Amino acid sequence: MLAEIITIGDEILIGQIVDTNSAFISKELNKIGVQVYQLTSIQDDEAHILQALNDAEKRVDIVIVTGGLGPTKDDITKQTFCKYLEDTLVEDKAVLTHVKALYKKFTNHPLLPESLNQALVPSRATVLKNNFGSAPGMWMEKNETVFISLPGVPYEMKRLIESEVLPRIVDKFDCPFIYHRTLLTYGMGESEIVRIIHKWEDKLPKSIKLAYLPSLGRVRLRLSSKGKVKENVVRAVDKEMKVLHGLLNEIAIGYEEETAIVGRIAKLFIQKEKTLSLTESCTGGAITEQITSLAGISAFFRGSTVPYATDTKIDVLGVDEQLINEHTVVSKEVAEAMAVQSNKLFNTDYALSTTGIAGPTKGDAVDELGTVFIAIASPSGVFSEKFNFGEPRERVVAKATNKALELLLKEILKN
Amino acid sequence: MLAEIITIGDEILIGQIVDTNSAFISKELNKIGVQVYQLTSIQDDEAHILQALNDAEKRVDIVIVTGGLGPTKDDITKQTFCKYLEDTLVEDKAVLTHVKALYKKFTNHPLLPESLNQALVPSRATVLKNNFGSAPGMWMEKNETVFISLPGVPYEMKRLIESEVLPRIVDKFDCPFIYHRTLLTYGMGESEIVRIIHKWEDKLPKSIKLAYLPSLGRVRLRLSSKGKVKENVVRAVDKEMKVLHGLLNEIAIGYEEETAIVGRIAKLFIQKEKTLSLTESCTGGAITEQITSLAGISAFFRGSTVPYATDTKIDVLGVDEQLINEHTVVSKEVAEAMAVQSNKLFNTDYALSTTGIAGPTKGDAVDELGTVFIAIASPSGVFSEKFNFGEPRERVVAKATNKALELLLKEILKN
């Protein structure tokens, strides 16, 4: 069962927005056993859309198209589908009622002709109700291929995928089971990992695929397989993963779960009934943002400071001014003092701090560009580690954030 | 001059990562007058790569391929290019020296055969030196089409695009000038905007394209055009933009610049010699992260608190406990008190605060899910606005962040 995702919109092709819809849809399709064969992004242009639909029909069983469903002139997806499927647009009464209700709720103006266009759908399409916007989703078929058209607005698309699209695909197709499992490692490069695991890799069954995913100081190793019987697929992959984990025991930090590393940290803090605060200088709130992106964290997370200016480290956080004068603001001593003070200020068990030189210039700092100290203060004391994350600025922040979360996970696991 | 970007890697097609490379490359190509005609993401599979290269060669002048250049077995881009171009891999001495030096710097192990593979390139390829990693970029030609192969690691790819790829394209091709200008508006939906501008839109010259980009409570309106003579293109677009801005004067908040809204805020604060602090409850550091993503902000940004737990709003920030008991933590009064206290704590001129119910559940809150108060305290006093950003959680945080930055921009513009 193969699928292709086509995203329509000039804004993607000129780099004005990053296409996050395709990754979401791919992940969801994978979960129900549909393999995504290709992603394609094209312009709001009739000839190009027709060509892309035609190419996709030859390649795959399911074509999901997002975008181009707005009420304005630059949106032409619906009309183009009509041309492709030799169909005509008709007014859908249920959609019309929905559009009118939405319009009444959100504006004071009389309903406009452009908005009425939102109620037009190809006559043979099945309407997928969009509760979060005015553009309906549509399910259409031609020969053996299913075409699904969805709005490009991420939260509207997501709800439609979950509540309308996936159940219908499961219903119509007999999908195999697809299984991925990803081991997270850190501290060793791809080539070195190969050296350790190549003998095992050579003997992997053909049905299991290994991928190396290096990213910001971590290498993730993914095993993938698919088959008709879920239990067999899971057993085969888990068995090989156990061997792989054993070979890389020293650098493995766990598996990539749905919720990733912050989810594991949250779970452990709640389980152990410990509390956490953060004080982020060079990471500027990036770690806090990752933690607060999870729901339910108020059970353990009490808050953060971002003492960006040096004197706020003294005034707001209470770091000793003399310590800063003696060791500079980017130092082991200041990082550790920041963590200790954060525990005091927020009345927490654990505190994590970052201080470093994110760049692009090092200002009057003594250390090299990219130097970052990460400290953790906990019931068992305080420690810090020094890193150099190079440049540019966004890489330093991203690597420091990853590393900080890793250190925090290790620490809360230990105690 | 048309280009296609092909990203190779199973991790994209299973939704494990979001492809941000394509947006970056598209934006950079646009700047030098190359129009991106299509983006394609495919698997690490020889037949599929060959097919995609073949299709792209028919469509465009320049094909940029990212990914699949690692030293491990799952990476096959280089070999597949050789097959496509009927070439063979040969060792490049300069790359070999570079790989050896990198290896020596970052590991203690002897050089591995897998790492030596990184020095192999197609014999007719021009090597594009990658200073930030071991996989070289490659510039290849077949018939009239240029093929460029780059590593998938974003910061390696970015540097190669900037320092090696763009200058060579400008050198080889006679590119037209492409110009986009985007007006930011807020507070009105697409259909209502159409009502105001449709007469103007109908009379737009054919050479200028209008796009509506709705996103999280804002609609962006983009005018695009291209031509041989830069001055003419800019003049024609700017003239129409002036008319459009006039028509939408009440909802226009400015133009989308390279640096976006945070860049404008930073510039104004520095210009006016004012300082800023933030205190983010429901946005959990997201606003701080946007501001600290810019370099040079220590000139005006002093720091933030994220007083997530209610009692940290009292203990850390100094909000009056009785105020919270009287009005609840998600209220106009508490939002305004938070902003006022933040100015005191950080000794700043301006402070912005957020407090709200991001969800997924409303806990014991009185207000509806999605309710957010944003307050700003400044030399001219303190004010707040109440919003409902609906759900889910990530949408509430993203919309609140956008809105907070808008309010801050308006406020600093005013004073």
Key phrases:
homodimer, six-stranded mixed beta sheet, 17 strands, Maf protein, 42% helix, alpha/beta, Molybdenum Cofactor Biosythetic Enzyme, Chain A, Alpha-Beta Plaits, 415 residues
* Sheet with the most strands: spatial strand order of chain A: 2-1-3-8-7-6
**Low-confidence blocks of residues of chain A:** none
Question: What CATH first level of the largest domain in chain A would be assigned?
Answer: Alpha Beta
The CATH architecture of the largest domain in chain A can be given as 3-Layer(aba) Sandwich
In short:
With 415 residues, chain A is α/β, with parallel strands linked by helices. The first copy, chain A, has helices at residues 10-13, 21-31, 46-59, 77-85, 93-106, 113-116, 154-172, 190-202, 230-247, 260-272, 286-292, 310-315, 321-327, 332-346, 393-414; strands spanning 2-8, 35-42, 62-66, 89-91, 120-122, 126-128, 137-142, 145-150, 177-186, 209-215, 218-227, 252-255, 276-280, 301-306, 350-356, 371-378, 381-388.
Structure, described:
Two copies of one chain form a homodimer. The first copy, chain A, has 415 residues and is α/β, with parallel strands linked by helices. Chain A has three domains: 2-172, MoaB/Mog-like domain (Molybdenum Cofactor Biosythetic Enzyme, Chain A, 3-Layer(aba) Sandwich); 177-255, 2-Layer Sandwich (Alpha-Beta Plaits), CATH 3.30.70; 260-414, CinA-like (Maf protein, Alpha-Beta Complex). Chain A is 42% helix and 26% strand. Chain A contains 15 helices and 17 strands. Chain A has helices at residues 10-13, 21-31, 46-59, 77-85, 93-106, 113-116, 154-172, 190-202, 230-247, 260-272, 286-292, 310-315, 321-327, 332-346, 393-414; strands at residues 2-8, 35-42, 62-66, 89-91, 120-122, 126-128, 137-142, 145-150, 177-186, 209-215, 218-227, 252-255, 276-280, 301-306, 350-356, 371-378, 381-388. In chain A, the strands form four sheets. A six-stranded mixed beta sheet of chain A has the order 2-1-3-8-7-6, with helices on both faces. A five-stranded mixed beta sheet of chain A has the order 14-13-15-16-17, sandwiched between helices. In chain A, helix 10 (260-272) runs parallel beside helix 15. The longest helix of chain A has 22 residues, at 393-414. The two termini of chain A are 47 Å apart. At the A-B interface, helix 1, helix 2, strand 2, helix 8 and strand 10 of A face helix 1, helix 2, strand 2, helix 8 and strand 10 of B. Strand 2 of chain A pairs antiparallel with strand 2 of chain B.
